Protein: Fe-S cluster biogenesis protein NfuA
Amino acid sequence: MTENTTKPVSVYAEANPNPESMKFVLNSVLLGDGGSVDYPTVESAVESPFAQELFNFDYVSRVFIASNFVTITKNSPVQWAQLIPELRTFIKSYVEAGGPIFIGTPTTSTAASAAADVSGDLSAEDTEISQKVIDLLENYVRPAVEQDGGNITFKSYKEGIVTVNLQGSCSGCPSATVTLKAGIENLLKRMVPEVQEVVAEGVVL
Structure:
């Protein structure tokens, strides 16, 4: 008789500032290399059978996957207390059974990809400012945002305006605008004097 040495998967739910989102944390890795993926629709989740399965729950409206957690956003008035047991059971069973999280290599959001996307037609000064902003977002902002089940990525810098993308629980969060202006914008303006304003794509108010 062969002993089953497969590590049992544990899943716990963790609330975040967005009342419509819930972060499900696992004791196993879903996505390596510090990346994350955000699926706002089932159509966008073609590379992730795991996310597609989650969208089969009719109350799931968005799926965000990072290193060892998945953030699920609902579009139902049903309270999380009623939904969490079902989702926890599914996630645990799916991962323990070895179900595929992704097909191939997913298109992730990372600081490295953001740096690579800094446009070559920017001036040397703007390129340098963009890199400073990317480093600050990666080292100071992103870890805190991930704690809340979301992600922030650099989009562009032009004429003093930084544009970022908010993903996962941050998209649609009632406090996202406050966090963006009172927290992130103040930090960047203090550390990079050239920054005048921070605006976000992906925020649904």
